[in-house]
Amino acid sequence: MAYYGLAWGMVGGHTVVNTYTNDTFWILYTVTGVSLPLAVLAVYRHYAAKTDFSYPSIVRHLFKQILKFIAVCGILIKKMIRLIWDIMQGISKGVKDIINASNPKDE
Question: What's the average model confidence in pLDDT over 31-57?
Fold first, then answer.
């Protein structure tokens, strides 16, 4: 603390939200600051009671999630390739139509 020139009373200090009489932000700040950590804790306790948190089960769940991620990436890549292919076909058809419409042999 002496290195930074700060008072020892600042050790362990937390940020303070300054509220004004017409400011209702403190309600949102308090509700979020209290309910969000409690909700995360409740969800963890709910799933911790249902699941076995051993290394094999964690590896198995991680492997399943990786496979799902790879499958979703594969589907997205396939759709992107199809979209690019359709765009290229549309462009080539448009160019051919323009060339056929401006063909001097028809005149």
Answer: 87
Q: What is the DSSP letter of 10?
A: G
| Per-residue tokens: 91 | 């462009």
DSSP state letters, 10-31:
GTT--------TT--HHHHHHH
Query: Does the pLDDT value for residue 74 go beyond 90?
Result: yes
How many helices (H) and strands (E) are present in the chain, helices listed first?
2, 0
Query: Would you state the pLDDT for residue 102?
Result: 85
Are the beta carbons of 19 and 25 closer than 8 angstroms? yes
Q: Measured in whole angstroms, how far is the alpha carbon of residue 47 from the centre of its chain? A: 22
Per the prediction, the chain carries an average pLDDT of 84
Domain ranges within the chain, ordered by starting residue: 8-106
Using a cut of 0.85, tell me whether the model's pTM lies above it: no
Whole-number pLDDT of residue 11: 64
DSSP per residue over 76-90, as a string?
A: HHHHHHHHHHHHHHH
